[in-house]
Amino acid sequence: MTASALDGGAWIDLTIGIENGMVQWPGDPPLEVAQVERMADGAVANVTRLTMSAHTGTHVDAPVHFIDGAIAVDRLPPAALVGRARVLDIEAAAAIEPDELARHRLRAGERILLKTRNSRQAWQRQPFRKDYVHLSPAAAQAIADAGVVAIGIDYLSVGGFDSGPETHRPLLAAGVWIIEGLDLSRLPAGECELVCLPLKIVGSDGAPARAIARPLGA
């Protein structure tokens, strides 16, 4: 991935490209990107059809994803995912626990991006793996208790393969917006400016998003 051409290349694209063959969460509807009309075949325009889960690639989880009756992604306050954020270098090899987060002194109102060992590989083009780095339910509760506004991570789920609901619920119940499937490989630890806007799909539990960030000086 290369830095965005926006603003002289200062912006870094954190978004995983949506393409046939990319990794998906097991059991999600199959992804299909198909060109159904082609100018080369005489059509007046090129038209592409997308068939996919709302949680494909880089995406945002809405509270209703794990809390029935909660708000959907179209009611996202844009300011929740636009503004100053902090990238944390995470050392955990598997589950991120509260003690590691405590060392980073989380603050109320922060947007936090978790850069883990997941970012050391082009995971989007590899088979799904269950041993990705994720938040433990206890760490999720610590983030919720700290008053964090948004949390992002560099794999398809902020929760573990076998503990996803237990991790998502305390975050979403506390109003923490979740960004999953980020490519943080080029984004250094420290402060940055974040822009992440999911598609406004009315009533949906999530939506694909475009996420970019610009590192800020000390």
Question: How would you describe this structure to a colleague?
Answer:
This protein has helices at 98-103, 137-146, 164-173, and strands at 12-13, 32-37, 47-51, 59-61, 82-89, 95-96, 111-115, 134-135, 150-153, 177-180, 190-198, 206-215. The chain has 218 residues and is of the alpha/beta class. The protein has a single domain (9-215), classed as Glucose Oxidase, domain 1. β9, α3 and β10 (177-180) form a beta-alpha-beta unit. α2 runs parallel beside α3 (164-173). It starts with 11 loop residues before the first strand and ends with a strand. The model is unreliable at 1-8 (pLDDT under 50).
Short note summarizing the structure:
This protein has 218 residues and is of the alpha/beta class. It has helices at residues 98-103, 137-146, 164-173, and strands spanning 12-13, 32-37, 47-51, 59-61, 82-89, 95-96, 111-115, 134-135, 150-153, 177-180, 190-198, 206-215.
